Amino acid sequence: MHSPTDDDLRRLGETLATAAIDRRLTVVTAESCTGGWIAKTLTDLAGSSAWFDCGMVVYSYEAKQAMLGVNPHTLEEHGAVSRETVVEMVSGALVHSAATLAVAVTGIAGPTGGTADKPVGTVWIAWKRRGGYPHASIHHFEGDREAVRRQTVAAALGGLIELAS
């Protein structure tokens, strides 16, 4: 996959904005490996306060627990980069916000931190609509840290667009 450009990300944000406004939806982000990049992409758009509720950047285990309610046992048993953790993150984002749509991301952007089981580029993304069930998927992105993060932002926004449709 190519690394999405700023224009690519802006276009995805605009598509989400249109869908959110048309359907009276609001968005919350819970971000680890992207460091707030999803929220930045969305709030770069004029008028985003009409449909963007908030974003949480949660790198540490403690932040994931305090801000999103991730269970310490989940983190100890499965690690931060896991289906179990990202599902708890996306659910916690809705609990701790007024939003109707949520996305959560956690992964290893590199260049260090990867293991044989979870190499650099491994990213879990989860989406959830208030009152619905979470959907999570694993991705194996390639490239340097910025490329992995850009691909994560694009995939996260793509999933939000689907959820909003």
What can you tell me about this protein's structure?
The structure is a single chain. The protein is of the alpha/beta class and 165 residues long. 44% of the residues lie in helices and 19% in strands. It contains 6 helices and 5 strands; from the N terminus they run H-E-H-E-H-H-H-E-E-E-H. The chain has helices spanning 6-23, 37-43, 61-68, 72-78, 83-95, 145-164, and strands spanning 27-31, 52-57, 101-107, 122-129, 135-140. Helix 1 (6-23) packs parallel to helix 6. It is globular and about 45 Å long. The model has no long low-confidence stretch (mean pLDDT 97).
Characteristic key phrases:
alpha/beta; 5 strands; 5-stranded mixed beta sheet
Structural class: alpha/beta
Average pLDDT score: 97
The proportion of strand residues reads 15-25%
Number of strands: 5
Distance between the termini: 24 Å
Q: Please bin the fraction of helical residues.
A: 40-55%
Instruction: Work out the helix count.
Output: 6
Oligomer: single chain
Compute the CA-based radius of gyration: 15 Å
Numbering strands along the chain, what is their spatial order in the largest sheet?
A: 2-1-3-4-5
N to C succession of SSEs: HEHEHHHEEEH
Shape: globular
Largest sheet: 5 strands, mixed
Low-confidence stretches: none
